[in-house]
Amino acid sequence: MLLKTRQPMPISCLLLLVFLMMVIPGHAQVKQVEELRYPPLPDLVIPEPERVVLDNGMVVLMMEDHELPLVSLSAFIRTGARLEPMDKIGIASLTGTLLRTGGTTKKTGDELDEFLEGKAAMIETGIGGTAGKASMSCLTEDFPAVLEVFGDVLRTPAFASEKLKIAKNRMMASIARQNDDPGDIVSREFKKLVYGKGSPYTWVPTYATIMGITQKDLAQWHETYVHPNRIILGLVGDFQKDQALALLNKVFGDWAKGPEVKDAEAFIQEQTLAGVFYVEKNDMTQAKIAMGYQGIRRDHPDYYSLVIVNQILSGSFGARLFSNIRSKQGLAYDVHGGVGLQWDHPGMALLSMSTKTQTTGKGIDALIAESRKMVSNPPTEDEVENAKASILNSFVFSVDSPSKVLSKYLTYEYYGYPSTWLKTFRRGIEQVTLAQVREAAARHLRPQDFAILVVGPREGTKPALTRYKDIQELDIRIPDPPKGA
Fold it and tell me: Does residue 262 sit within a domain?
């Protein structure tokens, strides 16, 4: 006869019991969810990486984590597409791609693939708008060998011509499709309204700029921007500090320091021009709407207040935009909004939605109304406290592993923020007052200054747009390739 054994209680049930014991002291019963009382959050201990600077100026942040026999290395490179000349738009992206796919002076791109596949390792590179990034991961036992190859990728890329041709063809195929997705159109054209057409934050590659980029151009870009004193390395995983530093010095120590050069500031227009703008796209069944202007940097005094404002506006399904526009009015499935917070340049204050063409006018009015209500019907004490709780309760999940913590410290180091930024975030949110939230909402949500962009079919959106006297139509036609190309 088989005896039935009692199964252990699932961990989820145990956690639920602990939670209930915490929020309902003495097993007291509550009738409404609003009656639940939560204990103060316990102190959160966040580890700090160790910071070391090599003789050639390369900064290294290190965090040991021996849970798994893995090592990961990330590099932030002081470069970015915002440094591109107008006649070479796309060179940063191509350089970032070819650093990896174009091989090195020791291994071709295909040989790199084979080497990494044999060790179940990874090396990736790329250059975005404000930074270049490279990363690697491997088993602890393979760290010396993979690190050596990673060093070659950064130091001696070959930019193989056949791989450059492939990458350029892919970019030109992307250019041909750049008007297919309405969301891409909104993102691209709204940036131009916010930052100005002369800002590199708004530039996109064309056939002409891509076709004009050569192997020599990539090598020159690398020579200009990729130096050890322009690189911040982040090492996390199963390593011993002294051994890891010895390996890093072996791979990078003899790399000569580059010239100390201050990069040019990227142009941004002083003020977003208010008005109504339209892009005709007749293969749509909905209208895309975006409105706003320039936001702020994260070092602005209103930063913490605006984190809370954004949570109240659009941070959850119970937030104002979702509750009022999606749930109550049924005008949109996706609706979002908030004041953008970038690290070293202003973000975008942006409210956006998709709606049926016949409700385009109602959608515009609803977004404007919600931004006005943040002043006329300002955030309540309950809204602020709930927003704070949501932000702080989710914060722990952004620092629940050494790799996540290290990623944040790399960002602070790269953009010049204090190393204490992470540890002061929680206190900064907790100390924000109701008055500060209301004042920040009034300062940074000004619908009278909005640039309003509508993308959609002319026939469907026409009734909504005829009420505006001056509508500027934007030309999104893709320039033809140069003749004879």
Answer: no
Residue with tokens 């492939």: 166
| Angle, helix 360-376 to helix 303-314, in steps of 10 degrees | 130
For 288, the domain range is 275-473
By DSSP bridging, strand 335-339 and strand 132-139 are unpaired
Distance of alpha carbon 454 from alpha carbon 347, whole angstroms: 20
Model confidence pLDDT, tens digit, residues 354-393:
999 999 999 999 999 999 999 999 999 999 999 999 999 9
Question: In DSSP terms, which residues pair with 272 in a beta bridge?
Answer: none
Residue 41 lies in a domain: no
Task: Classify residue 326 as left (phi > 0), alpha (psi -120 to 50) or beta.
Answer: alpha
Q: Are residue 300 and residue 209 in the same domain, yes or no?
A: no
Same domain, 356 and 248: no
Q: Starting from the edge strand earliest in sequence, which strands make up the sheet with 275-280, in order?
A: 335-339, 348-356, 286-294, 451-456, 275-280, 471-473
351/235 same-domain check: no
In DSSP terms, 186 is beta-bridged to none
- Cα gap 341→163, rounded to integer Å: 37
Task: Judge contact between 130 and 201, C-beta under 8 A.
Answer: no
What pTM value is reported for the model?
0.88
CB 402 within 8 A of CB 65: yes
Positive or negative: CA dihedral 290, 293, 299, 300: negative
The CA-based diameter of the chain, rounded to the nearest angstrom, is 88
Residues 6+ apart with CB under 8 A from 283: 457
CA 236 to chain centre: 21
| Domain match, 86 and 202 both | yes
Residue 354 in any domain: the answer is yes
pLDDT digits (tens, 9 = 90+) for 199-218: 999 999 999 999 999 999 99
Q: How many alpha carbons lie under 13 Å from residue 459 in its C-beta half-sphere?
A: 4
Domain count, the chain: 2
Tokens encoding 296: 């702020």
The neighbouring-strand residues paired with 318 are none
Closest C-alpha to 291, from 388, 230, 215, 369: 369
For residue 109, what are its two tokens? 């791109």
